[in-house]
Amino acid sequence: HLVESGGGLVQPGESLRLTCKVSGLTFSNYIMVWARQVPGKGLERVCGIHTDETTDCADSVKGRFAISRDNSRTTVYLQMNSLKPEDTARYYCTTAYGLRSEPSTYTLGGPGTQVTVSW
Asked: Lowest CB count within 10 Å: 7, 23, 25, 116, which one?
């Protein structure tokens, strides 16, 4: 069970921190990823974090977004800075086979959280 939160409406250049609370699995054993989707477009990988806390982010967000995890809270976070209008999307967290697994392999289990970046 995954529940994403923290989205909202912000202006370009502002920041948001997304939270994903995970239950029903041994969280520390899983690679976690954040992905996003715009209506009419495919799912896009954003950032992933391995069980050893190695991280990898898509080039489009590298240097602006950071993923982290707290195994004691079974929670994964996405810190998003310097947001741009093109970051507008619904954001989801999920488990993955690898940090760079194809989004087609993801199984989305949560409702996602909407991020809108606009003046």
From this structure: 23
Q: Half-sphere exposure of 43 toward its Cβ, with a 13 Å CA cutoff?
A: 18
Furthest-apart CA atoms within the chain: distance in Å: 41
**Which amino acid, residue 54?**
T
| Residue 38, SS3 per DSSP | coil
The span from the CA of 50 to the CA of 58, in Å, is 15
Beta-strand ranges (E) seen in 1-119 are: 2-5, 8-10, 16-22, 31-37, 44-49, 55-57, 65-70, 75-80, 89-96, 113-117
Instruction: Please give the average per-residue pLDDT across 5-13, as a whole number.
Output: 98
Question: Which of 18, 7, 28, 16 minimizes the C-alpha distance to 95?
Answer: 28
Q: Given pLDDT bands bounded at 50, 70 and 90, which one contains residue 34? A: very high
